[in-house]
Amino acid sequence: MSGLTETFKTICGFCHTNCGMLIETRDGVIERIRGNREHPQNKGFLCPKGLAAKEFVYSPDRLKYPLMKTSSGFKRISWDEALDTVANRLKGIKESYGAESLVWCNGAPVTTPVLHGFIQLISAYGSPNITGVGHLCAVPRALAVQSVCGGLGNSDFENTRCILIWGANPTDTRHVNSGVKFVRVIEEAKTKGARLIVIDPRRTELAAIADEWIQIKVGTDLAFGLAMLNVIISETLYDSEFVENWTLGFPELKEHVRQFSPEWAEGITGVTANKIKEVARIYGTTKPATIYDGNGLEQQRNVFQTVRAIAMLQAITGNIDIPGAKVINPGVRLGRYLTVRPESKRLSAEQYPLFPLLPFPSVVDAILSGEPYSPRAMIVYHANPLLINSNEEKVREALEKLEFLVVSDVFLSATAQLADIVLPDTTEFEDFGFETYSSSKGGFVALREKVIEPIGESRPVFEVEYDLAKRMGLEGYYPWKNTEEWINYRLKSLEITLEEFKKQPILYVSLPAEYKKYLKNGFRTPSKKVEFYSQRLNNMGYDPLPVYKEPPENGSTGLDLHKYPLVGTTRKPGMYTHTKFRNMPSLRKLQPEPLAWINPADAQVRGICDGDEVTVESPAGSIIIEARTTEDIGPGLVVIDFGWGNSWDGGANVNILTPDDIRDPETCSTSNRRFLCEIKKT
Length: 682
Ligand SMILES: Nc1nc2c(c(=O)[nH]1)N[C@H]1C(S)=C(S)[C@@H](COP(=O)(O)OP(=O)(O)OC[C@H]3O[C@@H](n4cnc5c(=O)[nH]c(N)nc54)[C@H](O)[C@@H]3O)O[C@H]1N2
Ligand SMILES: Nc1nc2c(c(=O)[nH]1)N[C@H]1C(S)=C(S)[C@@H](COP(=O)(O)OP(=O)(O)OC[C@H]3O[C@@H](n4cnc5c(=O)[nH]c(N)nc54)[C@H](O)[C@@H]3O)O[C@H]1N2
Ligand code: SF4
Ligand SMILES: [Mo]
What we know:
With about 675 residues, this protein is an alpha/beta fold.
């Protein structure tokens, strides 16, 4: 074989792990993909998604030129026509309705550009309406921890004696931790004597090797957490010295949790009082201990207060910023972005004062009701809001009602199909980029090299954004014109330029982790202490101490509960990320269809056999899907695979079933993880 071969050091952007990759090209075409052993994140490991990146880049489904919606479907147009149209429509909308009628929506920030593409534009335009997946992902948990102690950091599995995996499935969603496969990290900790407790309604890979698998009922984790606090406080298993010196509101917490006994929680969580006591005693007496919580606690109506209670558990036991607990590792600080946003006009500012962004359901409500005003246009970048938000039908209605929808994607996603203009973006392999990492050895930045030329007429987002800004007379707000300049601008505060970065593609920019940083600076709360009782929450009208509340459908919503005797939840299959990758043949082979997992007992009484086609019906809608029976979940529960619904995948979107009107009062997290349903043989 002949031809020019080159090897590039780049980074996989298919999930937040951002593994280092080596890609070999021949004559400008990707040939071989390997993990980069020099990259501290994965040290050579790649999961099947990363290894199949070639199928993503060269997929026949890739968008290759801009599209415009016409009465007879999409029509190919030139970039000039696409950008002129977008610029003119957005200028017109601003003149007619004001800048706040434009909404920007991104998706899970799996790469740095997802957080940044078009964000300068929306700020320069003058709209405060920045939405995305925040209400479903990470932000509710982060706000909860912030309210208790400022921040907790990452689990230190290497030095721990006790691990609680709570609502997380890292063997599928994180894959690798500091270069070691996640399951090996946990096995190694166990070999060194650490106890492992997994709190999950499903028997996950880690639940299967745990000392204790706590098969909790979906959405009841707050009751479990409160009962653990009750036991640890009443049996004086807490760290009294830490509590004395570093916390506020302990007497109130002590009094408050008296009512939440393990016997009370047993009826709610489905876990026996004895088991709750046992877990509380193990956690309270095995030091150091770490709680690794996950997205399973989010998309639940109690998420904010649940995670507050879990943060309190870590604080009363002194498992804060010490080896073997959770440690705030040094990260990378980039300079600030342009913000010219009249916050007062942000759509959800009054309804969700604690939530710093705009939750997507508030956008849907505003479009459909016109209250407090109607958003008219939306830029969707690297996101698939139609499929990933609860109640697909309602989201569709809202997106269809917009006057103007622009979608930047690499495929014609279900959301892109609703767009007026579709802009074909490059993938992360067709442009330079960078990622930032925090680690115990210090924060570092890694370069993403440009591996190949853009596919078709696809163009890098920062160039497209600048071209749009120019057409709208907003170029004065732009300290860059293309990706290279954007990187230099973003890395200026670190005094790194792209040219230097190319010579050394992994650069540590902060010192290794220190422990007990609070001794020097206190905690990042108003009082500089851990705050059990929150005056700030109380002032905002929220519970100052966590109170378990029954899901509202058990109240007075008028639902015929007998019609929906099962509780449904959703699962993220490890070989895909959200709605992505069903058009990659090697991954599709691993799981061709979405499945509804049910307990054999529930299947039997309904005459359902493994592999049968079933109809799942919830108050929001119904889907047809293949059933699988499994002992990995208990009776009464249905687990449905999340992420289908794009035109090429042929599967049903579980979010047709999920309700959008059951919301966490502090964070607007909708109940994508819990819906009532019935399942019947089709
Ligand atoms: N029921 C239920 N709902 C859920 C969840 C759940 O577990 N259950 N999980 C929730 C969570 S945690 C999250 S984060 C959200 C995820 O929500 P999203 O992030 O909106 O979902 P994705 O499917 O990742 O959508 C990303 C889109 O970006 C496109 N894309 C990929 N690469 C590129 C690129 O280089 N450039 C551009 N412009 N586009 C690109 C993809 O084709 C895809 O259409 O879903 C949430 N919804
Ligand atoms: N392969 C893959 N990796 C991913 C993603 C992906 O889509 N695919 N998405 C990325 C993103 S954006 C995110 S947010 C992370 C999420 O990754 P994780 O934090 O691991 O979250 P999930 O896998 O969504 O769900 C975790 C677990 O919560 C359980 N669970 C469901 N309901 C409850 C409940 O009420 N209580 C408890 N205790 N547990 C419950 C589920 O059974 C599941 O095992 O993964 C990231 N990595
Ligand atoms: S774990 Fe897999 S998908 Fe995630 S960054 Fe690494 S290789 Fe890519
Ligand atoms: Mo997420």
